[in-house]
Amino acid sequence: MATVKVNKSNFEQEVMNSTTPVLVDFYADWCMPCKMLGPILEQVSEEQNVAKVCKINIEESPELAQKYEVMSIPTLVLVKNGAEVKRSVGASSKASIMNMING
After folding, report:
1. Domain ranges of the chain
2. Residue 51 near residue 23, CB atoms below 8 Å
3. CB distance 21 to 71 below 8 Å
4. CATH architecture of the domain covering 4-102
5. Which ranges in 1-103 belong to alpha helices (H)?
6. Which residues are catalytic?
7. pLDDT category, 2, cuts 50, 70, 90?
């Protein structure tokens, strides 16, 4: 499935109320490591069916970045049943992202 763009208006529905785990990518358009991570996340989204992959632009939704205490980007947060269970800060390899989801 394709990545889902999330903001304040659809956050509850897409992330907090999701019946499947959600991998949330906090990013910004100007962030070079975020741009490098984008295609990897698209591949992860297409190649596995364990977790939904969502993207939150921290400049468009600063309140969500603040809620999750995102201090640097990219930050990946794995949410299960409305609670954070894992976090990764900085650019990650496809293998480490898959491990984060499946591990």
Report:
1. 4-102
2. yes
3. no
4. 3-Layer(aba) Sandwich (3.40)
5. 11, 32-47, 62-67, 94-102
6. 31, 34
7. confident
